[in-house]
Amino acid sequence: MDPRLMAAARDWGWVLVRGIIAIIFGLIAIFTPSETAVALLIVFGWFAIADGIVNIVRAIMLREYRHTWWLGIVGGLLGIGIGIVTFTFPAATALTVLYLVASWAVVTGALQIIAAIALRREIEGEWLLGIGGAISLLFGLMLFITDHTTATIALVYLIGYFAIFTGVSLVVSAFRLRQLKELQRFV
Questions:
Q1: What is the value of pTM for the model shown?
Q2: What is the largest distance, in Å, between two alpha-carbon atoms of the chain?
């Protein structure tokens, strides 16, 4: 048996824990969407500040070895600045993130539709790619035209459902890995 698969089977419990945590996070997001949106902004703000500090420290420590060490300081200062902006203007930060997600969904959706059209003679089932692209495109447009608060809450719901789906798949995988581990004993 593949050693990587054996290692995964041995650590099935950690996969289960990850799945349970994802499900709990998803449920929290769905049942408290406003609070989750605020919490995500706070976590992002602190992450940006911490990451900026680490970049600055790393740049200073590496200044003897790299002639572009100052770029780390610039990047670190930008990160700290973004963190401060997040705390100073949380609504603007949330709106910016919303527009970034909406833009990403529109662009990737359009590209998927183009790819589906280009691949229609090459592969079977290209229509699934096209449908996925259309859904992404419509989702992005919905985020652009919907009231910003409603769109932000919808995005939190989407994150919550995604986390639950991911968590359930991890839990199922964990139990399958556990079965594989049990089979290893008899081999």
A1: 0.67
A2: 61
